[in-house]
Design brief:
The chain is built from ten helices and 35 strands. By secondary structure, it is an alpha+beta fold. The longest helix is centred in the C-terminal third of the chain and has 26 residues. The radius of gyration is 30 Å and the shape is globular. The relative contact order is 0.08.
C-alpha cells in the first residue's frame, strides 16, 4: 500500500487561532424525520429536499429532562441543520459537541465527521433500524459535559463549502424497549483572527488545550481525518519531537521519528474508555514493517500507546515494569509522552513495547511454519491466559482438567501449524498431569523438572506485591524455548497493572492482608489449578521466602520503590495538569477505583502508603514461610501497633501460630467495651486489623487512651494501651 507523503506542516497545521464561535446549538430549529423505511442515501447531502420533514426545537428524545422535542419510541431519528460559511479560510478547525443516548453518526455535506464507537466501523453504512452495540448515557442534563469530536484543519477544508452547508446526524437507540433517547449537538468553529461569523460559545464549552512546550516527548499522529477503529489498522503519519535539551516545543521539527505508521485501538474493555489505548506499527512508504528505535528502546515495529485512565497516578504500570526489569525479568520498556491525534490534544500516554518474540523482548527462538519435528518444534512458544476470543485472543486450546484456555500469542493462531499445535498442547498436558500427581514436587519427576522455578517465583512476587486482580488468569503469559536452548517452561512477562496496588474495588484486592493466589473467582476467568498447587508446596514456599528476603533488602525496599514513583512524578511535571484539564476525572469514580481522591498528590500518596502496608504484611507472612532459616516463636503475640498515638487509623498486627478463634475488643479506661473488632476463627500467620477510632455504632470516639485486648482460643490474652489524638 502506498501512502502520500505528509510534511510537518500537514501533521501540525494551524494550531494557532484567535477565538471560538458556535454555529449550531442543540436548541436551534432542526429538521427531523423518524424513519419507518430506509431513507435515500442523499438525505445527508446539501441538495436533499427536506421540505416534507418535520421541524422543531432540537434535542429529540423521550422527555427525560434533556429534550426540546418529544418523539415516540423509535430505533432512530434523522436530523438536518443548515448553516452558512462566508469565508472558510478563516475557520481553522471545528468541534462537534455531542450529548447522546445511545449512538450517532454525523456528517457535513454528506461526509462523515464523527460517530460513536457503538455503531459499526467508521465510514460504514448504518441502516435506519440498526441498534447500537451497547448503551450510552447522555450527561448534560445532570451537569455533565458533552463528548467532543475534533475536525482538524485538513478534514474541515475538505468538507466545508463557501456558502450554505448542512450538518446531518442519524441518532440510534440501543433497542426499541429503551426508556430513554437523547440527541443534543453543537457545532463550534475555531476562528484564526478577530472576525465574527457566528455566536458566542456556550458557557460549558472548553476549547482544545493550548499547548506550547513539554519536558516530555511530543508524539503527533495524523490519520487523514479517519477515526481510529478497533480493527483493522489504518494508515497514518507520525512525528515525534524529542530534543536533547529536554524541552520540546510543538513547532519543533520531528527528530525522533518522521514517517508512516498503521494504527488501531487495542485492549478489551479499555478500548471503549474515553481515553482509549492504541497499537501501532512503524512502516515504510510501501506499508511494509519498518524496524526503528524509539526513545532509546531497541528497534522493532510493534508498539503500544497505553492510556492511563483508571490509574490516576499514571504510574502503576510503569512502576511494575521497571521493578520487573530491575529484578532481571523482561518487561516492556516505557516512556511517557504527550499525544496529539489530528491536532487534538489527547493527554499523557505511555509509549511501550508490545509483548512479542524478539531478541530484545521475549528472547526465545523463532518458530517458522516449516519447523515441525525434532528440536525445531520444541520451542518458540508464548501462551497467554485472558478472555477468550477477545482482542488478540482468537485461538488456543483448553486445559484437560479445568476448562482454562491457553491462547496462542506466538506463533499467532493464523501462523501456527498442526504439528506445532500438537507439540505445545501435549507439553502442557504433560505439565498438568505432573501437577495432579501425588508426588508433583519430586525434584526429578515433578514440576522442578519442567518449569523454571525462579521465573515463577519472581512472577508471583511481582503480582502479589501489587495484588494485581488480573494476575494468574488475565493478561498472564508463559513461554517456552527450544529444548536445545532451555527445556523449561517460564512465567512472564508481566502485563497490565493499572488495577493493582490498591486500585480495585472487587475481589478484596484493596486489602493488604491476604494472598491473591487464594482468590479464585468462579466463572470463565478463573486461574489455572496449578498456580495454587505450586503455592502450597513447602519447597516452593521456602524458595519464595529466600527470594523475597533478598529482594526486600534492595529492589523491594520502600526507598527504592519510592524513588521510582518520585522519579515518575518529576518526569511527568506540568503534563499532569494538562492531562487532567483534558480529562477532568480527579475526584471522580472511574471503574474500578476503590479510593477516589480530589488531587493528584493524594493519589500518589495513597499509592505509596498502600505499598508500604502491603510490604509490611508480606514481611510477616514470608517470615512464617521461611521456617528452615528462621526460628519461629511458638507463642502468640501482638507484634506491633502503629502509629501510636494515632489519627485517623491504627494498624494492629498479631501472630497466630495455628488456626485459632480470635476475639479482639477495644475498651475505654473505665473498662467499658467501645468496639468489638473481631470475633471469628482465623488462619495462622501474621494478621492485621485496623481501627478507625469508632465505636460499635460507627460514631467517632473521644480523644484519649484506650485498651486493645486480644483473646485467642480462651487460653491466651494480651492487652495494650493505644492513644487516639484528634
Amino acid at each position: 500500500m502506498k501512502f502520500f507523503l505528509l510534511t510537518h506542516l500537514l501533521i501540525y497545521s494551524l494550531f494557532a487561532l484567535d477565538h471560538w464561535e458556535t454555529a449550531i446549538f442543540s436548541y436551534d430549529q432542526w429538521k427531523y424525520e423518524v424513519p419507518l423505511v430506509e431513507l435515500p442515501s442523499s438525505w445527508k447531502d446539501i441538495e436533499f429536499d427536506d421540505d416534507i420533514w418535520n421541524e422543531n426545537v432540537g434535542g429529540f428524545g423521550y422527555a427525560d429532562n434533556d429534550d426540546g422535542t418529544v418523539i415516540d419510541a423509535t430505533i432512530s431519528v434523522y436530523l438536518r441543520k443548515l448553516f452558512s460559511v462566508s469565508d472558510k479560510s478563516k475557520l481553522s478547525k471545528a468541534v462537534l459537541s455531542a450529548d447522546y443516548d445511545d449512538g450517532f453518526v454525523a456528517y457535513i455535506n454528506g461526509i462523515e465527521i464523527g460517530r460513536s464507537y457503538n455503531l459499526s466501523e467508521p465510514g460504514s453504512f448504518v441502516p435506519f433500524d440498526q441498534t447500537t452495540e451497547y448503551d450510552h448515557e447522555a450527561t448534560m442534563y445532570d451537569n455533565g459535559l458533552p463528548e467532543n469530536f475534533i475536525i482538524d484543519s485538513l478534514k474541515l477544508d475538505s468538507v466545508l463549502v463557501q456558502g450554505t452547508n448542512v450538518l446531518a446526524i442519524q441518532v440510534h437507540n440501543v433497542g426499541i424497549g429503551s426508556s430513554d433517547m437523547s440527541s443534543n449537538f453543537f457545532l463550534t468553529f475555531g476562528i484564526v483572527d478577530d472576525s465574527q461569523f457566528f455566536s458566542p460559545t456556550p458557557d460549558w464549552f472548553q476549547e482544545p488545550i493550548s499547548f506550547e512546550e513539554s519536558n516530555l516527548p511530543i508524539l503527533l499522529i495524523n490519520t487523514y481525518g479517519e477515526d481510529i477503529p478497533d480493527d483493522p489498522r489504518i494508515p497514518a503519519y507520525m512525528g515525534i519531537i524529542n530534543n536533547e535539551s529536554g524541552t520540546n516545543h510543538i513547532n519543533d521539527p520531528f527528530n525522533e521519528y518522521d514517517g508512516h505508521i498503521t494504527i488501531e485501538r487495542r485492549g478489551n474493555s479499555s478500548q471503549w474508555q474515553d481515553k482509549p489505548p492504541y497499537r501501532f506499527e512503524t512502516v515504510d512508504g510501501e506499508g511494509e514493517n519498518y524496524n526503528v528505535e524509539l526513545m532509546g528502546m531497541p528497534e522493532e515495529n510493534d508498539w503500544v500507546l497505553y492510556a492511563p485512565w483508571q490509574d490516576k497516578t499514571m504510574i502503576r504500570n510503569v512502576l511494575a515494569y521497571q521493578l520487573s526489569n530491575e529484578i532481571g525479568r523482561y518487561a516492556s520498556k516505557t516512556q511517557y509522552i504527550e499525544l496529539f491525534i489530528n491536532e487534538e490534544y489527547q493527554g499523557v500516554y505511555v509509549l511501550m513495547e508490545k509483548i512479542k518474540r524478539d531478541r530484545n523482548r521475549v528472547d526465545i527462538s523463532t518458530l517458522n511454519p516449516d519447523e515441525i519435528s525434532g528440536d525445531d518444534v520444541t520451542g518458540g512458544y508464548i501462551l497467554k491466559f485472558d478472555w477468550y476470543y477477545t482482542g488478540d485472543n482468537i485461538g488456543g486450546f483448553e486445559s484437560g482438567y479445568d476448562g482454562m484456555t491457553y491462547n496462542y500469542h506466538y506463533p499467532k493462531p493464523s501462523d501456527i501449524v498442526p504439528e506445532q499445535e500438537s507439540y505445545i498442547q501435549n507439553y502442557i498436558a504433560d505439565f498438568e498431569d505432573i501437577m495432579l500427581d501425588s508426588d508433583y514436587s519430586n525434584h526429578s519427576t515433578g514440576y522442578p523438572s519442567i518449569i523454571n522455578i525462579e521465573s515463577f517465583i519472581d512472577f508471583i512476587l511481582l503480582q502479589e506485591l501489587a495484588k494485581n486482580v488480573d494476575a494468574y488468569r488475565l493478561s498472564t503469559y508463559i513461554y517456552k524455548d527450544k529444548e536445545s536452548v532451555d527445556n523449561k517452561l517460564f512465567a512472564g512477562p508481566i502485563w497490565d497493572f493499572n488495577h493493582g496496588f490498591g486500585n480495585c474495588d472487587y475481589g478484596e484486592t484493596w486489602e493488604i492482608d491476604n494472598w491473591l493466589l487464594e482468590y479464585n473467582p468462579e466463572g470463565g476467568d478463573q486461574m489455572a489449578f496449578w498456580w495454587e498447587l505450586l503455592w502450597q508446596d513447602e519447597n516452593f514456599q521456602l524458595k519464595t521466602a529466600e527470594r523475597y528476603t533478598e529482594l526486600r533488602e534492595t529492589i523491594f525496599s520502600e526507598n527504592f520503590i519510592y524513588s521510582i514513583i518520585d522519579s515518575a512524578v518529576s518526569e511527568l511535571g506540568e503534563s499532569v495538569n494538562r492531562n487532567f484539564i483534558r480529562w477532568p476525572i480527579l475526584g471522580t469514580y472511574i471503574w474500578p477505583n476503590y479510593y477516589v481522591f480530589e488531587s493528584y498528590d493524594d493519589e500518589v500518596n495513597y499509592l505509596k502508603s498502600w505499598i508500604s502496608d502491603r510490604l509490611l504484611w508480606m514481611d510477616g507472612q514470608i517470615l512464617l514461610l521461611d521456617i528452615h532459616k528462621n526460628e519461629i516463636s511458638s507463642e502468640y503475640k501482638i507484634t506491633s501497633i502503629y502509629p501510636n498515638p494515632f489519627n485517623p487509623i491504627a494498624n494492629i498486627q498479631y501472630k497466630l501460630i495455628k488456626d485459632s478463634y480470635v476475639k479482639i475488643r477495644i475498651f475505654d479506661v473505665s473498662g467499658k467495651i467501645v468496639n468489638e473488632l473481631v470475633s471469628q476463627k482465623e488462619k495462622s500467620g501474621i494478621r492485621l486489623i485496623k481501627w478507625n477510632a469508632t465505636n460499635d455504632f460507627g460514631h467517632q470516639v473521644s480523644t484519649g487512651v484506650y485498651l486493645f485486648e486480644i483473646q485467642i482460643d480462651n487460653n491466651y490474652s494480651e492487652t495494650r494501651k493505644i492513644m487516639f489524638l484528634k
